[in-house]
Amino acid sequence: MPRWPGDPPVTFLEMACREEDGYDLRAFAMGEHSGTHVNAPGSFLADGADVRAAAPWPLLLPLAVLDLRTRAAADPGTRCAPDDVLAWEAANGRVPRGCLFVCNTGWHRLWNEPERFMGIQWGALRAGPGTAPPMRFPSFTPDAVHLLVHARGARGIGIDTHGVDAPDDGEFLCNRMALAAGAVVVECLAALDGLPAAGAHVLLAPLPLRGGTGAPVMVTAFIP
Q1: What is the DSSP letter of 143?
Q2: 47: burial class by Cβ within 10 Å (0-12, 13-18, 19+)?
Q3: CB neighbours of residue 35 within 10 Å
């Protein structure tokens, strides 16, 4: 499974087996920001809410999908900018208030190739052993997030890469802006290719982890 540098791997531990205990049981552990997940305000903001308190889960929201697949294939560092949102509106009408605005970059198709999914740039590594290499994958710009969350009233943003922020943005401005405004952030989305640009709805149901800085989330789209 692709994971952010420094995040824990997914692990399984056998706790019981049929031969000795009459049943099988495993324990598993994973980082809160593993797989398709939501970020909680507490992950980036002082005194931010945990996952349980971040929203009245489950959330059923209108869904808006921006297709960036062609551009992302040519430029892995491409970012959703305000002009992209305005182009979406020119084709589909105003971004629905209260929606989840999602970028389909095609990156979800690289899920089984973790290094490509994370955009690891081994050739750009200049530091010594043990230093994480730079990464490159599609993301949002802070200006686009501001337009969506503050001007259009989007309830959340999402993307099929490992971050709404560019991987070289150590301040995580897109996350901070969205979460500070009470919006939802969903990352590592999958199976976006069959979704229409407008008209669908999406159900978000994360694990309500007490104190969680994020959590795996079940995402179900409803297409009319």
Answers
A1: H
A2: exposed
A3: 16
Eight-class DSSP state of 42: G
CA distance 149 to 157: 8
What fold, for 32-122+131-222? Glucose Oxidase; domain 1 (3.50.30)
pLDDT in tens, 3-58: 998 899 999 999 999 999 999 999 999 999 999 999 999 999 999 999 999 999 99
Spatial separation of the C-alpha atoms in residues 158 and 68, rounded to whole Å? 13
Tokens of 148: 């969506």
Alpha carbon 80 to chain centroid distance? 14
For 58, phi and psi rounded to 5 degrees? -75, 155
User: Considering only CA atoms, which of 114, 157, 119 is closest in space to residue 135?
Assistant: 119
Interatomic CA distance for residues 25 and 36, integer angstroms: 24
